[in-house]
Amino acid sequence: MSTPVEYRFSFGPWNISEGADPFGPDVRQPFPHEEKFGLYRGLGFEGIQFHDDDVVPGLDDLNPAQILKQSAVVKTILSNQGLTPEFVAPRLWFAPQTVDGGYTSNRAADRAYAWDRTQKCIDIARAVGAKAIVLWLAREGSYIREAKDARLAYQRLLDTVNAILAYDPEIELWIEPKPNEPTDQAYVPTIGHAIALAYASTDPTRVKGLIETAHALLAGLDPSDEMAFALAHDKLASVHLNDQNGLKFDQDKNFGSANLRAAFNQVRVLEEAGYGSRGEFIGLDVKTMRTQAGSPVTAHLTNSREIFLWLVAKYRSLDHAAVAALREARDYEALELHIIRHLLGI
Fold first, then answer.
1. Which of 27, 148, 222, 326 sees the fewest Cβ atoms within 10 Å?
2. pTM (2 decimals)?
3. What is the pLDDT of residues 248-278, one digit of tens each?
4. What would the CATH number be for the domain defined by 8-319?
5. Is the CB of residue 159 less than 8 Å from the CB of residue 117?
6. Which residues are CB-contacts of 312 (< 8 A; sequence separation ≥ 6)?
7. Residues of 295-307 as b/e, b for ≥16 C-beta within 10 angstroms?
8. Where along the chain do its domains lie?
């Protein structure tokens, strides 16, 4: 048996939320963004996920020299804290130019803005030492199907992927699929769509996927199967583990909190494939409950990390020979009971 992976964990500073609630008053005081970096190591995390404006606030109003100067400041902070920047993602869903999508907008000026912002994101990623950018194609879709030429939209997405690969010969591009929210229906709803774009690109080796548990569930799919599909193609660059209670808005609940067996299967698939052995992170994208008071609130992060590690231990202590024998016998009723008993510690 190969040496067990010692996992590395990451999260984004947005996961220590400000306490805003669109349906009521704030329940937590804001926690200064620049102070969040000092929390990572003590919580058991060494990787940090970024949006471009997490690194360089207000970057749309800055020139290239100013952007690189601020990026250098953040790189120094990360070095001092012993943190690794996992990726940087262009935030292409808040600007007025991206209300109808950036890359797939019907307006040429909006598409030009999206490309300019993407170039800045790549520059920021390289400046802080991240090897990848992540595209969460938040508004690349439509509310009514007649709003856009979908075939043309997919061509524009592929053209963007190729433009990114040409702009920087070393950067990796990780596509994070989601089927809806904020758009009604997104153009890249599953990891299969993302991988199809990768294979159609000019350099498939640099185009990979990032799978979020909740996003797969919102598509009506099993997250572990989505991960297995990407792993079968050697294209699972990262994961965002969390949980989801039904087909509703993206909840970002604690990993394993809604469906512990589904969480176990995600861990099982990652373990079986040796995920993490090349330094891949276990990324968390979890938000604290809206009712939770305090500042900063970090228990949702440490709890999710602890649940993941518990499930790793559960997988490694599983009677794998018994599982193999039950599979061979096709006795899946017995296999299910075997798994449930193991998860319950019986």
1. 222
2. 0.96
3. 889 999 999 999 999 999 999 999 999 999 9
4. 3.20.20.150
5. no
6. 7, 267, 271
7. ebbbebbebbbeb
8. 8-319
